[in-house]
Amino acid sequence: DTGVSQDPRHKITKRGQNVTFRCDPISEHNRLYWYRQTLGQGPEFLTYFQNEAQLEKSRLLSDRFSAERPKGSFSTLEIQRTEQGDSAMYLCASSLSEGTGELFFGEGSRLTVL
Amino acid sequence: SQQGEEDPQALSIQEGENATMNCSYKTSINNLQWYRQNSGRGLVHLILIRSNEREKHSGRLRVTLDTSKKSSSLLITASRAADTASYFCATDPYNYQLIWGAGTKLIIKP
Lengths: 114, 110
Description:
The structure holds 2 protein chains of 2 kinds.
Chain A: E1 5-7, E2 10-13, E3 19-24, E4 31-37, E5 44-50, E6 53-57, E7 65-68, E8 75-79, E9 88-95, E10 104-105, E11 109-113
Parallel strand pairs in A: 2-11
Antiparallel strand pairs in A: 1-3, 3-8, 4-5, 4-9, 5-6, 7-8, 9-10, 9-11
Chain B: E1 5-7, E2 10-14, E3 19-24, E4 31-37, E5 43-50, E6 55-58, E7 61-66, E8 71-76, E9 85-91, E10 99-100, E11 104-109
Parallel strand pairs in B: 2-11
Antiparallel strand pairs in B: 1-3, 3-8, 4-5, 4-9, 6-7, 7-8, 9-10, 9-11
């Protein structure tokens, strides 16, 4: 299966620790997105890349959050000094910039901050 | 910020019945998409309707779009237990991101 993959699927950490999530998009997709989703809510946009360039970043993304997409392939989302409010599902999606606009999502990485 | 609002928030019906969910949004759009999410999983694209389209079908799904009312509906006919999931509408007021509603939680009772 060559869909979007995310790792790890679940992460439990203590407040103040750093965590990193990885996303491998569909190989030919040049756009990659990170969303955050809390229980009972829809996804909230965090950031997106076109190839290796980070083109937009939500105001929700504090300076404790950083995302990279070296060489325009996989992406990482790092959260430094985690807080309990960071507990959420972090979703990665990819798409083609010249496509229909459909996003292809991974299964998500669930973060629990104790 | 959430642009779309789905209605109802939750819907419980018997297997075989039809399920209708509605979505309202605030700004002009290029297209509107519907996605399904099973509990604890990622989202799966169901159907996309462009702003110049009024109705679209895909299998047991029927989507309508009324741009004058800034609203859309998703109809699932002959529901099955496997349709139990949350359904989200998403709009694209910006070229690079989708704006999502809070979803409708659909439960199909056997």
